[in-house]
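Quick board copy: two proteins, each given as sequence then tokens.
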Amino acid sequence: HAGAAPRLPASASVAAAGVTMGVADPPRRCLGGGRAAAALLPAVCLVDPRVPIFLEASCRLCPPLGDSRITEAGALEGGSSDAGLWYGLESGPCLDPTQDNSTFADMALSLVLRQEFAAECAIAFWAAYLAMLQYSASTRTLDIPKRMLELANATTEAFSWEGGFDLSPFPFWSGTRSLVDQINFHTNFMPAHMAICDDSHKTGPTRGRHILRAAHDKPEYYCAVRSSDFQLMKRCRDKRRRQWYDGMQGFTTGGPKQAVIAYPPPRNTGSVKHVDDIQCPCLEDQLGFAEERKRLTGGNWAQQANFAIKKYSDRALGSTGRPGSGCEEPASEWRMDLRIYHKCILMVILERMQLVPGAQVLDWGTGCGHKLSWASQLYDVSGLGIDIVGDNIAWAQNYSIGKYCQLDGRFVQWLPDDFFDAVLSYAALTHLEPADQCQVVAELVGKLRLGGRIWFGWNAPNIVEDEVLWAKPEYDREKFWNSCFENAVQDLPRWQSGEVAAVWDTELEANMFPDDMSRHESYLFWPPAYSLFLTRTNADSLSAHKVW
């Protein structure tokens, strides 16, 4: 995020989410200069001397993304000719409280407590309100009183762009969200840099990214893992301090009388050293893969994904119809608000896998990237997410932590071999035909480093009539996956040579995620839904055993 703020030509058309804002205004300068800028404020705002101080401080502590004063590590340094100038459609979130020992956050809270300011000095009140929401570390969704939302909806003083929200000259403005929309966004999401395992570089790389609030650890949700986010981050930071390499823990060498040396198994030896080095495949490559699969399998192979694309593309529009807004409304993305359960599921899996900081992870069927953001926040993994729904990926690229590519998930050949520490996937594999399920899983095993692990969750979910469920090949999990890996040994060259092999297991999710299934009503955990676990190995490691 370092570097000068991007410039838009004065004649440029500014558009976002399908809303054309017309000819772009010249760059907007944040309120600055203290007393010199006080004349821009309504007289009633100056009754409280904290108001100009707070608004001026916001220009330093809530700068736009790309402001050249913010270093990669997130420190606020010096000034620049562009400092305080806003281009584009969004301002940036506030810096973390260490920048000023929480003075700015305290000022925001003190102004919000003066609720009469909502009518008398709307620009100061709502600016402070939005800042206060950002500084909340609550994992629960923030409960905003209905009266406050009605008041925000009725506020007109702070609007100066037709069709957009502008707290001019304060930096909290948006060309895509109303004041109420901004409030709702911050009640559901916390800025990623406010609370993250990698606290030494938290503001730079993750500023502008947001994490869905979800209190999986509260006792009323009966999650099998109840460690709080705070505890998980402490544990992760302790691992970071003791770790001298990124990624999974190493193997050991040496005999009984020799020194035992720990080292990580080799990653892909090419130019790809990190998920950020992986290039998303171009459309031509994707079309070539689709044609090859159609030639090999025949029929309407490409069209098999149309139902899932239509289903989740519709959900991506949310209640507002704005592309990607469904990612901000868990009740739209998952048909009902299941964020608590999704986060609980992920925490159980990550505690089981014990991924270490710096692990390179693939999230297959990532959706909006919420799970990858949680994993990055609490376990410091570096993630690549892939999904077929364009609006979801576009949202993830803007707001979630990680790198994201839009493509048909059945196309995995472009991913580097022997690279990932783990592959995570939930409620995605079930959308594929049985043959495609087997093909994807078998090929992804070869994308792991030796010792790397795969988790595919929510297989054979109980969401259809019994007769339909029983007829699914994957319902008989032992028979289905045994047959799958037998075919892999016969059909895939790296499996044939013994370079790639896997140890695998399945487990009913009703026994994994809730600590007391009798207290749960969510359909996510209903039997026979199960998780599939695999560990990458090779034939030499399995030579003494009959695996298939």
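And the next:
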Amino acid sequence: RMFASRLASLVPRVSSAFRVHRRRSVHPARATRARTRMTTAMASAVVVPRARVVPHRVGERVRVKGFELTEHFFTVPLDHFADASDSASPSIEVFAREVVSSSKVSDPSFDRSALPALLFLQGGPGFEAARPTEAGGWLAEAAKQFRVFLLDQRGTGRSTRVTNEMLERAFGTLSEGLKDAETTESSATTNAVANYVASHRADAIVADAECVRFTILGADKTWTLLGQSFGGFCIARYLSVSPEGIREALFTGGLPPLIRDNDDPAYGTYVKLLERVKRQNEKYYERFPGDVRRVMEVARFVHASDEKIVTPGGSTLSLRGLQSLGFSNLGVAGGFERLHYLFETAWEGEGIDDKTLSYAFLKGVDDAHAFDTNPLYAVAHESIYCNGAGVKSAWAAERALVAYNAANDGLFDPEKALTRSSGDESSDEKKDSAKMYFTGEMVFPFMFDEFARLRPLKGVAQKLSEKTDWPALYCADVLNKNAVPVACASYVEDAFVDWDLASLTAREINGARVWSTSEYMHSGIREDGGTIFTKLLELARDEDPLR
């Protein structure tokens, strides 16, 4: 309904964003703050849209064990940086679920507005917030003192979702891949979808959050921020542009890398991450040494297959696709075990001639990625590292992988691994030592050829990889002067957010207290959320003093 006409002309208009601050009259104090922020933004090339109260409706209020849950829906501009006088500027809906402890609600004297508020920013990009089923983890701990808002970031969950079907309804048929001679219509559709997807980065998410804060809490109220992974990237943006809305900020595995790098930050990030992923592969094979042979056996089968191997979801499985099974399994709690059990059940049938990959294995291949339900996770992935300065992502992970293989004797090249495992001499010994190294959380061009639900988005992904006019996300100069209490959990062996690069960013945030630990992996907030949340809150509030 929001996209009654095709949005073929949607282009983020950064140049007009400065007019945002000349809308309507505002309270003098707020106007002064807006002008101050505008000056800072102009000096740092970071554009700050004006936050305001937006249309809001309350949905259902339900209970799960330990929590009362309230639905909130907000109507926000698709493009926060567009001229506000443009009445035709489209809007989208953003959803947040408010979580309050049942024990507080049952108190006759309960005053919802008296509770301090906390906003949780989910990892991703392109994922909705978790759906509480009962009190537990960090959420139960937070609900002891906060009313918690779980934001479905734009494009996800019950916000206006980005799906293949939604994009086709709004823009027309998505072409399957790039063709040598695209029609004018398909090219226009690809451009329009790429522009639409480009409006779903951290800058827009933070602008949405500020509208939610103004609408629910009021302009002069602050809230605590908790950000996991990409949610931490959003907090760094928030601290750069709207620190006056934040009481304290808590990062868990989410300090964005290379925020001062104007050269090629996405590439630099993946070069570092490949070393982390290498170590995760080594640890995996140390844990499950029998999987060296199991994985190579499957790799040989895939490589030798004369026919395409098709998964239940319609994707095709190649060596690169097999290698990408590390995406959500390396560097998270239980990931090694999931990968091991997947390869345990790889085969159907007995004997060489009758052996084939099992349905269970191929279904597991489909389930290893969430691109089918959350395509933003793929198409917007590398853009999260683009911090202005006219830099494009240009398939940074692929470039980094090629360079790493060239410098390290093809360590991540599955075909070279097969070559190493073949030959006449010491055949059994070679098969036991040659390893196929899995890749980590990285999006590669081949995925848009092989993954069924990504094929129609190949042209969109290519357009976004070539885009050079990304607005700046962070302002290191503002972060250097930060006055908001900040605490960070930084995981030493993190394979998703490199610890070395995260440490550099932490040093840019004035007053940030960092808890570096190897006790948890990137998924620490899910493993032991209550402990981590409490620790960070104590650090931010100096209840755990400097020492």
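Board note added afterward: The radius of gyration is 24 Å.
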